[in-house]
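I am still learning, so can you show me any protein sequence you like together with the matching structure tokens, please?
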Amino acid sequence: MEQKLKGRIGLALLIAFLLSGAPAIAQLPNKVGSLINADRTMAKLSASETPYQALLSMTDKETVFFSPGPVQGLKHMKNRPNVPDLMHWNPSFSGIAKSMEFGFTTGPVTFQRIGAPKRNGQYLTVWKRDRKGLWKISAHAISENYGNSKTTEEEYLPNAIFIEPDSSGYLKHRSQVRLNQRKDVVESNDRLFATILKTDNTLAFLEFLADDVRFYFPWNEPIKGKIDVLDYLEAQNLNIETEIEHVDRAYSGELAYSYGTASIRQNGPPKKYNYIRVWQRQDDHQWRVIIEFYSER
């Protein structure tokens, strides 16, 4: 009897341990967690109220929506754009800068108008904190696809990837001139990327994409990894040229993003797209693209 009782107690303790440990699997990293929670808050407001109210709550005068080209956020929302009636999304890849005022979230999204078929895609949101320390959308776009990606929290959490910055310090600049110069470095990289694209797409992507890059292209599943991206571009016979319109960089310096227009040729006349690139300064101090995102224009 005593042995049975000990066995039951041991089993109960094991079950309690497993249950208590389960939430830790889904526990958010300390720093990037604030950004992911902002994204989730917006998603919950979209479900409880409307997607329009959710997006508006995170929009300020610096926000840019791609609808389909880049438009000023507040002006766009005040004109009551054709925002879907229903939207559901979850971040599957997120990152935040050491300075904690700049970051990004991206993942699968579903959206629809009442009475119309559900549509699918991947979203990308670049975030910046405002003067009050609140997260606001800097840029937001959707690249539509056929919807094979998983979207529920239970499905995405075990495979979600977060960039959590290390605890090392960073140089704090007081001069706006110096801050602008730091943006110029990223812009120069984007322009050099564009220059090489005009002559050799393979060489350009080989040089500027990070090894673990995420590549989003309309009507295709997301691709992870530089080699797979190069294989896809060759298989699809895609020829891409880009022209930068805007760049911004985290105060701490290691993350940045750029956007502009892309002219893409595939077995016929070129078509216009938008592109957004999320850049990260690598361990070798070179800038590489960790997200290459295209949407229809």
Observations:
- The chain has two domains: 33-163, 176-296.
- The chain has a mean pLDDT of 87.
